Amino acid sequence: MHVLIVGAGPTGLTLAGDLAEAGLAVTVLERREQETANTTRAFGVHARTLEQLDIRGVADRLPGQKVRRVSLFDQVSLDLGNLPTRFDYLLITPQYEVEKVLRERAERLGAEIVHGEEVTSLCQTADKVIVTSTSRTWEAQYVVGTDGVRSTVRRLVGLPFPGRSVVRSIMLADVRLTAPPADVLAVNAVGDGFAFVAPFGDGWYRVFAWDRRKQVDDKAPLELDEIKQVTRRALGTDFGMHDPRWMSRFHSDERQVPTYRVGRVFLAGDAAHCHSPAGGQGMNTGIQDAANLGWKLAAVLNGHAKTELLDTYEQERHPVGRAVLRSSGAIIRLAMVKSALGRRIRSVLVGFLLGRESIAAKAAGQISGIGIRYGGKTRVGDVELTTGRLFEALRGGRFVLIANEEHATPDFVDVVKPVQPVAEPIMVRPDGYLTTWDDVRCR
Ligand SMILES: Cc1cc2nc3c(=O)[nH]c(=O)nc-3n(C[C@H](O)[C@H](O)[C@H](O)COP(=O)(O)OP(=O)(O)OC[C@H]3O[C@@H](n4cnc5c(N)ncnc54)[C@H](O)[C@@H]3O)c2cc1C
Fold this sequence. Notes:
Layout: E1 3-6, H1 10-21, E2 26-30, E3 44-45, H2 47-55, E4 65-67, E5 69-73, E6 76-79, E7 90-92, H3 95-108, E8 112-115, E9 119-124, E10 129-133, E11 137-140, E12 142-145, H4 152-156, E13 163-177, E14 186-190, E15 193-199, E16 205-211, H5 224-235, E17 241-256, E18 261-262, E19 265-267, E20 273-274, H6 282-301, H7 311-335, H8 340-355, H9 357-368, E21 384-385, E22 388-389, H10 390-393, E23 399-402, E24 413-416, E25 426-428, E26 434-435, H11 437-442
Parallel strand pairs: 1-2, 1-12, 2-8, 12-19, 23-24
Antiparallel strand pairs: 3-7, 4-7, 5-6, 9-10, 10-11, 13-16, 13-17, 14-15, 15-16, 17-20, 18-19, 21-22, 23-25, 25-26
Helix pairs in contact: 1-3, 1-6, 6-7
The chain binds flavin-adenine dinucleotide.
């Protein structure tokens, strides 16, 4: 087998599809017996992730509600409506819908997904990795641990997960509302708590509430009344919430592994980094980790690139993970400001900063992922081509050269013609970032 992936969450499923599309033999081991749950953790898909899903042909299959203005607190909000993409919004949709389209794609392209197999041990030699799971042993050229925040793979390769706890005892409920908020997203933070309400678009709503005065263990019993009370304090009403289908308490840590690779084993998604849910970045970052790693593993295993290309996965994605820890940490800390004076300063300062066009555009680029760049390698937007769009041309998982006329290229590069002529040819990596001819030739 070429690649064994541990964990069939959004990160593992994205990677499995990309590797299968490149013609590689890939198996995903998942300890859960069932395919999907009707509960959901993530519920927001940002613009750059939607672009990555578009590059995989599944973005338009996601149901949900589009949000162009993200409220932060105290009437301060961030405008996503000016993002330079057709996905100029945050899509509110349950994580299981994202997993569903990614799973279907991965299976259609030939990835094998095996449920009820929990990985328990792993050892690597110079040319392979041997993995043991519930019922058997597997051998692969590379292993990727996408097994979430409590990653076994991370432990088995001996990596620490340094960081700290950022917020305890957040309450979560998925509920029905009799009187939904007028704004799509309702959020506010008062001195001793905060609440957040967002629609899934199918009649269900996600509520988060946090009460500074009641900090208890994640396992402490939780009643809907407790969530209602905090929501009333923060937002003035509980919107008539009822019939919870899921309630939970959770805490949130900020952690990141020092390295994303140990020999032939890689880590991606929550296994490599975790942070507060503020900003809705976890699933998004994991899918983009997979988009970065997939084509590199495929290029090396298909003999188009030297193994050094694999080092660029950590070089490019570790700093992005670090930036996400910083931004989501900043949002949650601002939401938790206690004193009235602190809260007044917060709204003036954040309102002032987001009132400045360049800072607001930078913040929107950061939170949506559209602004992510790898050194000089910027994202290439969805250029209109004589044969369709760039993101459609990238669907084969290959390099794409945008050029006004024919070019002789290696067989892993497709040449496409733009509707508006380009000043010079543009080479695009399979994950939609700018690269150069030299990069392609030296790989
Ligand atoms: C309340 C909440 C709200 C959130 N909201 C958002 C949001 O709006 N937007 C966003 O982007 N993110 C959000 N997140 C974060 C998001 O849910 C995670 O970042 C995302 O699920 C990570 O995906 P992953 O594939 O890396 O890991 P996971 O989804 O955790 O998947 C890991 C998989 O590995 C399997 N596994 C674990 N150990 C083993 C083993 N030893 N052998 C085999 N299989 C194993 C698990 O069963 C699991 O299926 C939220 C999280 C929480 C808790």
